[in-house]
Amino acid sequence: MGRLLMWLESLRIRGLRCLGDAVIPLQLGVTVFAGANGAGKTSILEAAFLLSHARSFRSGAKDALLERGAEALSVFAELRHADGCVRRLGLGRQGARWEARIDGEAVSLSELVGECAVVCFEPGSHALIAGGAEERRRYLDWGVFHVEHEFMSAWRRYQRALKQRNSLLRAASAAPEALFLPWEAELDATAAVIDRLRTLYLEALRPHIEQAMAGLLPELGSVEMKYRRGWSEESALGDLLASQRGRDLARGHTTMGSHRADWSIVFEHAPQREHLSRGQEKLTALGCVLAQAALYAERRGEWPVVCLDDLASELDKAHQAAVVNQLRSVGAQVLVTGTEVPEALQCGPTQVFHVEQGRISPLL
């Protein structure tokens, strides 16, 4: 049986940070982008991630994505699926609007994101464990979106109803109850769908999380995942929204619902997040990224592209080797950055590019 993978055959990047116009031919397996800090290495991974998430993994203003002086940015890729089908993907931004294309046809951002799967472990990934709930919801919802077809429409309907209810809560003059009721009913109905799909996803993810953590952090013992849906387990969301409307009016926003959900990982020997060292937070985040990739492969029949940004500074040599060996064993396309080729990648087939001031040239 052949390896079941999706992989980027080429990447063309224009106007993204310091990358004016770069064309990168890619291979299956491991590719390293090596060069000094600030050379543009991370922006290459960012381009691949944009195709799969329609946002950057870096925090900060969206305008920072644009090369200085550039009016627009674009990322194009040729993506080969496990079945041999090749799709031409494009994502561009001029002004505030993103535009997506597949095989030259305009498509929605969600269609583009649904076509291409890229997961990334990078210096900010520990926020998945140590940061706020928004980062964990994003991780969860990207995973749910790719395996549960009904999720996107429920999520969109929920976001629309939430926006409408929040507008009523902030209105200059008090809105009558009759205006709240249809939006609260919509929030109640869609939140139930979102909660059910998130719960199913986390149950499917659990064995992959257990396996990843056993390999990366065996000293912390068994692992458990906890999920909080964003409102009381005892009550329907619609009833709570009606009874808590006065409190929400005082605060000017909706204080409970699917947009307040969160999840956490609890280890037998580190029952609270504060018990983890910074290094353990990073390894836990890495385990989450690898588990999500493995579940995607199980459900969709092909491994996603895996990006590892600044691998050598994020992980010690033993963990670098463990991760690389695991990803080589499944044959996934892995894009790695570093100031030099990490030791773990110096043996075994590796494609290497040198990156300097936004210019990318092949070395091996």
TrEMBL record:
ATP binds at residues 35-42. The keyword ATP-binding applies. The keyword Cytoplasm applies. Signal peptide: none annotated. PROSITE patterns: RECF_1, RECF_2. InterPro entries: DNA-binding_RecF, DNA-binding_RecF_CS, P-loop_NTPase, RecF/RecN/SMC_N, RecF_2. The RecF protein is involved in DNA metabolism; it is required for DNA replication and normal SOS inducibility. RecF binds preferentially to single-stranded, linear DNA. It also seems to bind ATP. Keywords: ATP-binding, Cytoplasm, DNA damage, DNA repair, DNA replication, DNA-binding, Nucleotide-binding, SOS response. This is DNA replication and repair protein RecF. Belongs to the RecF family. It is found in: Cytoplasm. Residues 8-340 form the RecF/RecN/SMC N-terminal domain. HAMAP family: RecF. SUPFAM superfamilies: P-loop containing nucleoside triphosphate hydrolases.
